[in-house]
C-alpha cells in the first residue's frame, strides 16, 4: 500500500487533488446537514444575516475558492502550502456548487425543484475529480519500467477511446451518461450506441429526414424518463433534501 501511495499519489503530485476532493465532499455534506437542520428548526444553527441581508454560503465559498486557487498557483504542490491551498479551494468549491442553482437562476431556489441542479453539479464534479485522482499518470513518476510505461499508455489510450464515446453520448443529449461514462466505460458505450434524445444535436443532424427514427427516439426517451425519474428523484432527495411541495421557487427560504 505504501509503495502504491508513493508511486501514484505523492510522486505525481496528486496529494493536493486528493485533499481538495475530500474537502469538497465533506464541506458539501456538512453544509447540507446544517441547512436541513435550519429548515427543520432544529439545532443551534441559523441563517447568517448582516443588516437584514441574508448572506448565502456561496459568498464565503467564493472567497475560499479565490484564496485557495491563488494560493495553489503561488505555492509548491509538494509542500505544506499547496496542501492548505487545496483544502481551502475544495471547501470553497463545495460551498459554491451547493448553491449552483442559485447562481444559475439568480434566485433563491435552494429548496425548489430547480435546486436539484446543485446536487447534480456536486455529484458530477466529484465523479470527474475522482477520475482524475484515480487515473494513472505516466508523468511525474520516477524510474518507470518499460512494462509500467506500456501499462500506463494502454490505460491512457483506453481513456481516450472512452472519452470519444462520451462525446458521442453528449451529442445525443445524454449528459449524465456522458459524464458518468468517463468513469465507467460501459456507460459511455451504451450512451453512444443507443438512439439520441429528441432535440439533441445528433437528432437534429441525423434524424431530420427520418421520421421513423424521430418517433422511435421520442418513444424511447418517454419510456426511459418514466422508468428512471422516480428513482433519480429519491436519490437526489436523500442527498440534498426534498424540495418544498407545490412550489417552484421560494425566495428567502433556507
Automatic annotation (TrEMBL):
Alphabetically sorted, this entry's keywords are: Membrane, Transmembrane, Transmembrane helix
Q: Enumerate the transmembrane spans.
A: 15-34, 55-74, 80-106, 118-141, 153-170, 177-196
Tell me the superkingdom of the source.
Answer: Bacteria
Q: What is the designated name of this protein? A: Integral membrane protein
Species name: Streptomyces cellostaticus
Amino acid at each position: 500500500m505504501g509503495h502504491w501511495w508513493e508511486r501514484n499519489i505523492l510522486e505525481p503530485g496528486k496529494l493536493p487533488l486528493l485533499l481538495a476532493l475530500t474537502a469538497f465532499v465533506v464541506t458539501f455534506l456538512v453544509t447540507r446537514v446544517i441547512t436541513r437542520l435550519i429548515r427543520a428548526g432544529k439545532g443551534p444553527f441559523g441563517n447568517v444575516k448582516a443588516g437584514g441581508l441574508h448572506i448565502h454560503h456561496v459568498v464565503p465559498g467564493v472567497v475560499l475558492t479565490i484564496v485557495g486557487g491563488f494560493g495553489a498557483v503561488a505555492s509548491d504542490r509538494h509542500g505544506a502550502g499547496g496542501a492548505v491551498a487545496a483544502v481551502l479551494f475544495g471547501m470553497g468549491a463545495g460551498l459554491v456548487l451547493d448553491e449552483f442553482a442559485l447562481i444559475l437562476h439568480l434566485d433563491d431556489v435552494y429548496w425548489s425543484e430547480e435546486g436539484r441542479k446543485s446536487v447534480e453539479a456536486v455529484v458530477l464534479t466529484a465523479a470527474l475529480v475522482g477520475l482524475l485522482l484515480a487515473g494513472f499518470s505516466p508523468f511525474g513518476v520516477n524510474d518507470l519500467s518499460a512494462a509500467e510505461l506500456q501499462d500506463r499508455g494502454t490505460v491512457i489510450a483506453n481513456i481516450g477511446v472512452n472519452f470519444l464515446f462520451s462525446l458521442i453520448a453528449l451529442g445525443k443529449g445524454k449528459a449524465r451518461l456522458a459524464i458518468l461514462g468517463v468513469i465507467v466505460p460501459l456507460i459511455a458505450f451504451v450512451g453512444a450506441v443507443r438512439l439520441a434524445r429528441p432535440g439533441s444535436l445528433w437528432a437534429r443532424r441525423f434524424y431530420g429526414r427520418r421520421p421513423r427514427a424521430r418517433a422511435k427516439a421520442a418513444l424511447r426517451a418517454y419510456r426511459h424518463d418514466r422508468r428512471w425519474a422516480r428513482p433519480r428523484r429519491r436519490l437526489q432527495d436523500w442527498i440534498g433534501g426534498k424540495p418544498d411541495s407545490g412550489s417552484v421557487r421560494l425566495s428567502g427560504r433556507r
